Amino acid sequence: MTDFPPPMGLILEVTHRCPLQCPYCSNPLELERANAELDTASWLHVLDQAAEIGILQVHFTGGEPLSRRDIVDLVAHAGARGLYTNIITSGVTLDDKMMAILMRAGVDHIQLSFQDVDPAENDFFGGSPGAFAKKRAAAERIRNAGLPLTLNFVIHRGNADRVPQMIAMAEDLQADRTEIAHVQYYGWGLRNRNALLPTRAQLEASTETVEQARIRLSGHMVIDYVVPDYHAARPKACMGGWARRFINISPSGQAMPCHAAETLPGFTFPSVKETSLMDIWQHADAFKKFRGTAWMPEPCASCDRREIDWGGCRCQAFALLNDMNATDPACELSPHHHVMQDAVTESEHSSGTYVFRRMAKVEA
Amino acid sequence: MSAVPRLSAGHKLRFDQVRNAWVLLGPERLFMPDEPAVEILKLVDGRRTTEAIAQDLAARFDAPLEIIQGDVDTMLADLAARGAIKL
Fold it and tell me: Predicted confidence band at B26 (pLDDT cuts at 50, 70, 90)?
């Protein structure tokens, strides 16, 4: 049997620790603790293997990746092996000193998140007073260091009406790229769905804003736009298809096709402490389970979009239908598509209080 | 006056030994350029003009300059619109 083509990207959730507490966080509800995290040598070994098997880009994320004391060593090592290095950060600890050592380590790109363009709302949402000012300063540092600047805004009911101001702020900061990404409803985001889901009118307004800005800013700023599945007619190709492009590794070293996959029942995800990346990619049952089209039920199996959306998202099918083998209910061809509208209707009648992300209390 | 194209900040053209192919890497995306695009991108160095790039390729591949110039301009304009090239 021919080997499956190598993965393009490696997503390293180096820690679940984070100074922010955003209620839309896509981390699992049960966060991994610091003492469970892989040590430096194990991450370096993962990076060596990544370069050998053809991975091209490494995305350091979390939690807050800058919470790891050894993050600079990991970035430098990845760069030395020819890997393109990307740090996905909240920016609140990206001070002058951290910026200088990241530049010395040769970081290629930093994605900086904002919770809102309104400072008070931003700080409320992240649960961190003063965060907005630190983020603005971090954006200037990234810019002044000569790196490309990507701003990320996660969109939900509470801030969707300010998408025009977000894009204006990105222009003001001379961002090269802006992500206007509606919340994806996994982990804490799913937990807070009733408070976060935008109305259809909000979604349509944000889409219109992005489309107009893209035309106006063509050649100056790229805008990546991610919509929520709940108002969609067809599902997204989650992760570019199950185990087609990415390997995601949790803080403790669990390798998964996506960061939410551990919510699925009956899986044994291999650990990078015991299994090589190549072996995981080519042979792990968890990676082969939903790869390609052979697993698909109808209406997916005979659908002419089966190699476009790759069946959508397994985690969403499980979270909403309790059946990870089912057609993603985001698809209007799913017999259960109504659950999406039901969720929208339910959210419209909810009070809108958030449960902020936090580590579970340790039992004494 | 003709444009001097350069790769946008954070973009790198490199050869991938595993795929035996050139790849253009950028912020959270990558391009797998076809062979003609690779030949153009190798000449994008922030000094050559689009005319100089076309002349170089026309001479090396013994092809009509007008056609090559059209291909070069189209390819670079496309990558510029996608933010990977500054013209």
Answer: very high
Inter-chain contact B25–A84, Cβ cutoff 8 Å? yes
pLDDT of A157 above 60:
yes
Top pLDDT among A359 and A106 is at A106
Q: Are the beta carbons of A136 and A99 closer than 8 angstroms?
A: no
Measured between CA atoms, the residue of chain B closest to residue A11 is B28
* Distances in whole angstroms, Cα of residue A157 to Cα of each of A105, A124, A183: 39, 15, 10
What is the SS3 assignment for A226?
Answer: strand
Q: What amino acid is encoded at A100 in this protein?
A: A
Tokens standing for residue A261: 């996959």
Q: A69: how many CB neighbours lie within 10 A of its CB?
A: 8
Partner-chain residue, chosen from B10, B26, B81, that has the shortest CB–CB distance to A218: B81
A248-252: which pairs have CB atoms within 8 A and are 24 or more residues apart? A248/A11, A248/A13, A249/A10, A249/A11, A249/A12, A249/A13, A249/A46, A250/A13, A250/A32, A251/A13, A251/A14, A251/A15, A251/A16, A251/A32, A251/A36, A251/A37, A251/A38, A251/A62, A251/A63, A252/A32, A252/A36, A252/A37, A252/A38
Minimal C-alpha gap between A31 and chain B (Å): 25
Nearest to B18 among A54, A84, A176 (CB): A54
Q: How far apart are CA A28 and CA A25, in angstroms?
A: 8
For the residues A178-201, what does the mean pLDDT come to?
A: 94
0.90 exceeded by pTM: yes
Which residue type occupies A208?
Answer: E
If one compares A360 and A325, the residue with the highest pLDDT of the two is A325
- Chain A (135-174) residues lying within 8 Å, Cβ to Cβ, of chain B: 146-148, 150
Tens digit of pLDDT for each residue in A109-135? 999 999 999 999 999 999 999 999 999
Q: What is the pLDDT of residue A363?
A: 47
pLDDT single digits (tens) B43-77: 999 999 999 999 999 999 999 999 999 999 999 99
* A176/B9 touch (CB, cutoff 8 Å), yes or no: yes
Residues of chain A positioned with their CB less than 8 A from the CB of B30: 8, 56-57, 84
- Asked whether the beta carbons of residue B27 and residue A54 sit closer than 8 angstroms, the reply is no
